[in-house]
Amino acid sequence: MTKELDSLSFTVSGHIARPPADVYEAVADPAQLSQYFTTGGARGRLEVGADVSWDFADFPGRFPVTVVEADPPRKLVIRWQGIASVEAETSTTFEFEPVDHGTRTLVTITESSWLVTPDGAKQAFGNCFGWTGMLAAMKAWIEHGINLREGFYV
Fold it and tell me: Whole-angstrom Cα distance, residue 104 to residue 9?
C-alpha cells in the first residue's frame, strides 16, 4: 500500500571547507549572512526568542523568521513565510555535520510543508533553487571571500 503524499519537501546539501562552528556562525550571525545571502540585510541572530527578519533585493520586503531550535554548532530550525504551504509558514532545518576530522562541514538544508498542488510545487522548487544558491554563495564567501549574489539579481 502506497502512502498518499500530504506535503512537499526537499533537501539540498554541500560541503564547505571550514569547521562546523565557523559554518554555523556564517548562518546564525546576521552580519555574516548579510554578506552572501540576504542581499537586503539580515536582522537578529538566529537564536530562540530573537527578533529576526531577512530582506532580499530580488524579493523586496522583510520576511520575519522564527527560530524554533538553535543547537550550535549542529543544527538550526527556522520557520518563515510560506506561500502555498500546508501552514502559514514552512519549516527549514540546517544541519552541520563535521567531515574530515572537523576540517570540513556537510551542510544539509531541508524545507517542508508545501502543498501538493501546482502552486505548492512552484513555490517549493523556487525555494529549493534559493537554498541551493545560498549554499553555493556561502561556500564562495567563507572559503574565498567572494560574494556571488552581488549584482546577480538586480
Answer: 26
User: Residue 49 corresponds to which cell in the numbers above?
Assistant: 526568542
For residue 1, what pLDDT is reported?
Answer: 63
Tell me the pTM. 0.92
Give the sign of the dihedral formed by CA 78, CA 28, CA 59, CA 135: negative
DSSP-derived secondary structure letter, 75: E
Provide the 10 A C-beta neighbour count for residue 39.
23
Q: Which domains are present in the chain?
A: 8-144 (3.30.530.20)
**Vertex 33, ends 29 and 35: CA angle to 5°?**
125
Q: Outline where the chain has alpha helix (H).
A: 20-28, 30-36, 118-144
pLDDT 10s digits, 34-80? 999 998 899 999 999 999 999 987 777 888 999 999 999 999 999 98
Closest CA to 121 of 78, 77, 83, 87: 83
In the chain, pLDDT over 70 holds for what percent of residues?
98
Cα 113 to its chain centre, rounded Å, is: 15
